[in-house]
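User: Structure please.
Assistant: Input sequence and predicted structure:
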Amino acid sequence: MEFIRPDRVAAVRDRIDHPIIDSDGHLIEYLPLVRDFLVEDAGPDLGRAFDQMVKSSGPRVAVPSPARRRQLGIHVAGVWGLPARHTLDRATAMLPRLQYQRLDQLGIDFAVLYPTYGLPVTSLGNAELRVALARAVNRYYAEAYADYRDRLEPVAAIPTFTPDEAIAELDHAVVELGLKAIMLGGTIPRPYDDAPHSPGRWIDTLGHDSLHDYDPLWQRCEELGVAPTFHSGGQGWGTRMSTTNNSYNQVGNFAAADEGTCRSLVFGGVPMRFPGLRFAFQEGGVAWASALLAGLVGHYEKRNRQAIEHYNPASIDRDLLGRLFAEYAGGGMAERVERLSDGLAMLSDPDELEQDVDMFGASGLGSLEDLYRLFSERFFFGCEADDPMNVLAFSPRLNAGGVSLPALFASDVGHWDVRDMCEVVPEAYELVEHGHIDEEQFRRFVFENPLKLWAGANPRFFDGTAIESVAAAG
């Protein structure tokens, strides 16, 4: 079959002189092969457990009553999420050789491909299935894409329920299978100890207040030269628990998960302890990052260990306060002035613990400049082509500290967000056509920022690829 580059794609490629790197395309795993790998490695019992997981919509379909779904903690997720009418695109995401042959038609030089059915692997509650399935899908990525990795780089799925689990699969995927990009589970659902089988849970985000010490994992990532990237979702959290409407649950869910993991890493001091690491947060866009940076700056300015002393109740001038009440209090307040101390305690407790007062102590941040460097040099943000908020990344006057945020062109091809794979490059370029960014900023979006992420972690990332020479030249 011949694939002709559409005029809109050709027009963009004629105007630029650099490659386009897609940092978050998607592949769709061929499940019969994944299942056979799983059974071969882990046995038929886990094969049957896998079959039950594949039928994940079963409980929802079997329980049509929204009220009963609410009682069982069932939310609506994953409704018709893959291409169907555009069958060529469905097949493209499933067949490595077809995707490889269509890259020129799409206007993409190199694509980093995240999982589809491998996405939930990192959040499966069944530990035995989770570990075995991660091994099976990573074997699938390594073997199915072995002949195409000069332009297609599959991403390994690394479950992170425990650091040991993560390190074991990280070593398997990177050292044994030779995969160069990884996806960590960044939001881990943990049951409450007193109700382990209830729908109630809390979300562990691997940094601040985590159940485990994940420093050995970050250390291993640094040693192996891989960038920790995250592609978790927030469906099933808080308000995203609709029993009837998947879009209600879907809107903003990736941004919520990205924000939670990023905020956790900052407060947990992970990027400050591991200065060689770069982190990527996929499919959530960049608007949340701009808002998070602003929020962190505002809190740091007024809530760091020195600044918060401004609010220390020990600093209250009781004599002055008493004179002010004597002069200005009236009515019921004047009648109860002897109980003034009772009116000062709430939100102003003098007996707060030091660990609660020193809110940025574990972050390792020494100044606002540290924060600005994290968000402008160490954190990268996957942005879909049709998201108009991408412009925030290139609007330093709108971002705290006047920084630009390292946005990554992240197409999401293979999923419902993309109705036609041939549209993603022209849609991304519309920011230039509409005057929101210039050609140099577009170059950063689709080429320079991806280079900084992937080659920044591993200088040899693009060795042997179709863009090796231009990547080396920067």
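The two ends are 34 Å apart (CA to CA).
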